[in-house]
């Protein structure tokens, strides 16, 4: 039996064969098919060897992609909230512009000097129906000025401070004024009930020609309000057997609970009576 070959000798033989194979591969075409066949056999080994690296890179990309998507989602949510807030603000501004245009159109139809004011507060006392506006004596607001919106009378200035004023609403329980039915001229006294939107006519004979839906306008009597302004609309007329007066309720034509801006009208002075008229009456 022959002794096993020296490992160094085997390594030397392998090295020589490798060099010969490299030279033949470079100089002759016979090694091409062999290299192609061996490459096909070793491809799965290379794929398996690189699988951990490729998997790690894929997981890293997926993690980065998920993080990026989450960041983008949070950014879009914040942007959406900001845009929604802007849309809501634009809606508020648009509604306010509509109200202001209505006021301006209404003031153009008035034969009196008017002043636009903004409502800045409400009376905290539930038993009082009052507003606070941002115009006062510094803007030539005086006690007794009529206050209205685009639909009709709201009330009257009862206290004018330097920078703000208090307005007593038509619906206050202490308020009353002279009105007439626009349809036929029947006059009556309109009083507040202390509730928003609540008005009633006082001491109207049961036989008076007043119907549901009739428009009530100011008469100008007493020089408290200018004549001919819309005040209220009749909502109900009830007749009770044997009663001398009818029970009549109305609602203001003005949007008292929704107004944000109002018009102040200078009281219309009554024409002075001549001395001849006075002497004739005497």
From TrEMBL:
<comment type="similarity">
    <text>Belongs to the MreC family.</text>
</comment>
<dbReference type="InterPro" id="IPR055342">
    <property type="entry name" value="MreC_beta-barrel_core"/>
</dbReference>
<dbReference type="InterPro" id="IPR042177">
    <property type="entry name" value="Cell/Rod_1"/>
</dbReference>
<dbReference type="InterPro" id="IPR042175">
    <property type="entry name" value="Cell/Rod_MreC_2"/>
</dbReference>
<keyword id="KW-0175">Coiled coil</keyword>
<keyword id="KW-0133">Cell shape</keyword>
<dbReference type="Pfam" id="PF04085">
    <property type="entry name" value="MreC"/>
</dbReference>
<dbReference type="InterPro" id="IPR007221">
    <property type="entry name" value="MreC"/>
</dbReference>
<feature type="coiled-coil region">
    <location>
        <begin position="59"/>
        <end position="103"/>
    </location>
</feature>
<feature type="domain" description="Rod shape-determining protein MreC beta-barrel core">
    <location>
        <begin position="119"/>
        <end position="266"/>
    </location>
</feature>
<dbReference type="GO" id="GO:0005886">
    <property type="term" value="C:plasma membrane"/>
</dbReference>
<dbReference type="GO" id="GO:0008360">
    <property type="term" value="P:regulation of cell shape"/>
</dbReference>
<protein>
    <recommendedName>
        <fullName>Cell shape-determining protein MreC</fullName>
    </recommendedName>
</protein>
<comment type="function">
    <text>Involved in formation and maintenance of cell shape.</text>
</comment>
